[in-house]
């Protein structure tokens, strides 16, 4: 099995010491923290021997003391490092492991042992990755090969899953959902004895790295695997079926964290079929997992996906709030509602979901998508971490002490961008999303310039030119992608179904509630109070700003308002001129990034160079399509020329 170690590919240190001494209680010798340290030290100091609790401490030794200090929080750590001795303490084995990874990271970046003190605990309690892996080995919206969790219906636990757990723990992930929220095929049987042994084994492996295992159950399992004729959450037979199912599941898999559920959404079964609501459905499952400390994470991605485009009143953006806000306060304590970052569906630009901060009596989690479904499918570089940071830092203006999104949630999840290809993420550069996501959730104040450089150095080595080029590419990539694709928050100008490449009217006459309403007079969707009323779902301050065409931020203008092409943005340009400029400039940026990457030939290894170069070639072809199709589309509709007279095809 050949796969990259990504940022855990430790390089040799500039140090000649002959002995690494690891001192700890006997019980910690079996811990992942100890093992990680051992593995890393062997790679960093290949000539040294690694010993446990040795007495021989001299000038030729480096001593690392590991301990558990219960007065620290469970996932907290402290590090006191010097040139000869380092002491790492955790509030539990998980905290200790995070401390060890932090020590290793700083040592790797410095190229040798250094003196520093650190104390940290995660900003977010729940830091999850959701895999959309199907039991047959395919991945919904997967751009990195096949699943490494499933093959032909079988659940895999092997070297690759061990490496996965190490990588995830190293950036602080503490919960992983292994299967698709659309539960298909054999995945419906995950609840049965068929998967008992492999789930137990995977659960144990994850547990060793501080990661809870989650699965997506089929809401209709009482029918699909239980043989009942109903999945009604208020039916006693159904309730008992789930209770028994969970009792046996949790007794077999002690490290099971619970369930993630997509119900009544895009064809998935749910409580609506029985005239029940989402609180009925979620609470029924929550009561079945509660005796085992389990959680039910219930998704709010519920909307009418059989809409008529002629219907101008129904607004998909409203649906999450409309469905769930009236249920605030009705969910059990162990239910968490998982809310996508925006009201539509992981577009390159959307407003923050209005449920954050609004549901004051319900636990919420934010959901992002590292899999770049709408952001270039891991062929285009699009570093999403700055966007995630902005959204988590967004002030909801709801009446609360700290109104930032990050403080209104008890966790964050992201759809994973991994698969079984050599580099895990299709493009080697897409791993920066995985790394940055985890690090940001652990420390939401992380400096993004440093983060980009740190990832580049850990991944590609110490060459300054490589680090600076790669971090420049990452940092500018989201803006460039937004510029050459969909303007001003409009969304949905991609090709239907697979969502790659431009098609300005691809979703215009469809059933998904995804319309831009472009015509010769103007563009955008009126979601102000005079339109669909969506803007009123925000706290009053934002409702006023978003609802007012003159105060709405430029980058969301067309999400909230319908305007003529000659409408002036707050920055002074007309909408149409902005569209032309952004598309030409975005493409030029992509060209600049490709050239920067090309300048690294010979400075990164040949395979990596080829992997990224091929994707840049594709990115440029596709970006040119976006530029020319979108510019031409709007030129034809508006009849207004580009002031700079650049080439637009007619
Ligand atoms: C897993 C979008 C994607 C679907 C995905 C869905 C969801 O609609 O295109 O593939 O289904 O989101 O988040 O449930």
TrEMBL record:
Annotated InterPro entries: A-glucoronidase_C_sf (IPR037054), GH (IPR017853), Glyco_hydro_67_C (IPR011099), Glyco_hydro_67_cat (IPR011100), Hex-like_dom2 (IPR029018)
Signal peptide residues on this chain, from the entry's feature table: none
Presence of the UniProt keyword Hydrolase in the record: yes
The protein's enzyme class: hydrolase
EC code: 3.2.1.139
Alphabetical UniProt keywords: Glycosidase, Hydrolase
Protein name: Agu67A
GO term, biological process aspect, one: xylan catabolic process
């Amino acid at each position: 099995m050949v796969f990259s170690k990504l940022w855990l590919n430790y390089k040799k240190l500039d140090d000649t010491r002959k002995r690494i001494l690891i001192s700890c209680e006997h019980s910690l010798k079996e811990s992942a923290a100890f093992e990680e340290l051992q593995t890393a030290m062997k790679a960093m100091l290949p000539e040294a021997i690694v010993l446990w609790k040795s007495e021989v401490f001299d000038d030729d030794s480096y001593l690392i003391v590991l301990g558990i200090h219960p007065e620290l929080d469970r996932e907290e750590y402290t590090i006191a490092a010097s040139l000869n001795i380092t002491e790492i303490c955790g509030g539990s084995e998980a905290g200790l492991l995070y401390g060890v990874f932090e020590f290793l990271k700083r040592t790797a970046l410095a190229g040798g042992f250094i003196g520093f003190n650190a104390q940290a605990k995660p900003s977010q309690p729940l830091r999850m990755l959701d895999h959309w892996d199907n039991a047959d080995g395919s991945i919904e919206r997967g751009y990195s090969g096949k699943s490494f969790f499933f093959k032909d219906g079988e659940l895999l636990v092997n070297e690759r899953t061990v490496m996965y757990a190490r990588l995830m723990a190293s950036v602080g992930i503490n919960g992983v959902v292994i299967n698709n929220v659309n539960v298909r095929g054999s995945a419906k049987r995950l609840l049965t004895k068929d998967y008992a042994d492999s789930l137990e084994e995977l659960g144990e492996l994850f547990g060793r790295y501080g990661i809870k295992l989650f699965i997506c159950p089929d809401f209709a399992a009482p029918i699909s695997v239980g043989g009942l004729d109903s999945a009604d959450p208020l039916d006693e037979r159904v309730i008992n079926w789930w209770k028994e199912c969970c009792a046996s599941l949790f007794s077999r898999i002690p490290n099971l964290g619970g369930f993630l559920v997509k119900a009544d959404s895009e064809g998935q079964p749910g409580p609506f079929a029985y005239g029940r609501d989402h609180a009925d459905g979620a609470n029924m499952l929550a009561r079945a997992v509660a005796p085992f400390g389990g959680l039910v994470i219930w998704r709010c991605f519920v909307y009418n996906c059989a809409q008529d485009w002629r219907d101008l009143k129904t607004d998909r953006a409203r649906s999450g709030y409309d469905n769930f806000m009236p249920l605030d306060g009705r969910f059990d304590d162990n239910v968490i509602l998982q809310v996508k970052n925006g009201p539509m569906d992981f577009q390159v630009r959307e407003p923050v979901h209005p449920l954050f901060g609004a549901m004051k009596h319900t636990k919420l989690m934010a959901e992002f998508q590292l899999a770049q479904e709408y952001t270039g499918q891991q062929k285009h570089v699009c570093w999403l971490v700055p966007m995630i940071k902005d959204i988590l830092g967004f002030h909801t203006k709801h009446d609360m002490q700290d109104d930032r999104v990050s403080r209104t949630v008890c966790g964050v999840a992201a759809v994973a961008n991994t698969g079984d290809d050599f580099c895990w993420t299709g493009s080697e550069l897409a791993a920066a999303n995985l790394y940055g996501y985890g690090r940001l959730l652990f420390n939401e104040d992380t400096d993004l310039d440093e983060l980009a450089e740190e990832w580049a150095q850990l991944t590609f080595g110490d060459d300054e030119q490589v680090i600076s080029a790669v971090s420049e590419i990452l940092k500018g990539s989201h803006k460039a992608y937004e510029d050459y694709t969909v303007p001003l928050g409009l969304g949905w100008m991609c090709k239907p179904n697979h969502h790659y490449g431009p098609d300005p009217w691809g979703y215009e006459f469809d059933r998904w509630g995804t319309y831009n309403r472009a015509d010769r007079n103007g563009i955008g969707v009126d979601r102000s109070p005079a339109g669909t009323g969506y803007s009123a779902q925000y706290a009053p301050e934002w409702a006023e700003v978003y609802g007012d065409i003159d105060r709405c931020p430029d980058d969301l203008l067309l999400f909230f308002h319908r305007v003529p092409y000659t409408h002036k943005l707050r920055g002074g340009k007309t909408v149409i001129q902005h569209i032309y400029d952004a598309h030409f400039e975005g493409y030029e940026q992509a060209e600049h990034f490709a050239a920067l990457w090309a300048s690294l030939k010979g400075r990164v290894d040949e395979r990596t160079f080829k992997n990224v170069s091929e994707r840049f070639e594709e990115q440029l072809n596709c970006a040119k399509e976006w530029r020319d199709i979108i510019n031409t589309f709007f030129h034809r509709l508006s009849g207004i020329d580009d002031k700079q007279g650049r080439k637009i095809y007619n």
